[in-house]
Amino acid sequence: MKPSSKLLLLIVLLLPVVGQAAAESADYEPVKLIRPLETIIPHELKELGMVNPRASFQVIVGPKGEMVDYLAVSATHVGLLPKAEEKLSKARFKAATLDGVPTTGKITVIITFFDPEQRAWKQGFAGAPMGGNVSDAVARKLYRADPDAVAFQESKPTELDSPLTLAETKLYRLHAPDAEPPSGAVIAEYFIDHHGQVRLPEIIKSDNEYLSMSVIMSLRETRFVEPTNGGRPTYVRVRQPFNFD
């Protein structure tokens, strides 16, 4: 009988990501992105005149080269995120190895954007692009006056427009066969992304392996109301204790 995809995901998430010290002291090869990622800039953003528009992600890659989890960590403009996530979903990776054995690893992936009309013009294949209309000029002026106002970046929980609000969750309490559920405490750290999804959960401290699995499974079934800062999508880091009596 094949294990369920949920169980496989749980196993991979609980595998430790190789730390810096281990990587430096062993025969370690980091995760590799097989091909650079770039995509066409959204039409509604092309007239802003952004310089090197891009979006950056932290990605966890499993031993088979599969993308296990990811977090959008920055973008020149929040409007780049939908196309960036779509492009990221098609990325291919070569898994990290430790002493020749595939292992779970982390990689920063940067997705760049380009304007095909601008590229064709610079390469001499087309005439200069049109300058846009009055509305485009106004939008471009506003963007240049304060580009950080539309950038995507991390926020502190205290900077959010409203407190974090739980939208849905499902609690698990796992235990060994023919055994009582264990008691104890777990401290977990995770991110809540701009969709309200829990991303990159990590167990910081735990009294029991089954409690760790219970927390990870519960977090994977948890969603929050999308966090915003100044009306813009954002993401936050959370450290949370879990007590099992």
UniProtKB/TrEMBL annotation:
Q: Which residues form the signal peptide?
A: 1-21
Task: Provide this UniProt record's keywords sorted from A to Z.
Answer: Signal
Superkingdom of source: Bacteria
**Protein's name according to its UniProt entry:** TonB family protein
Give the originating organism.
Oceanipulchritudo coccoides
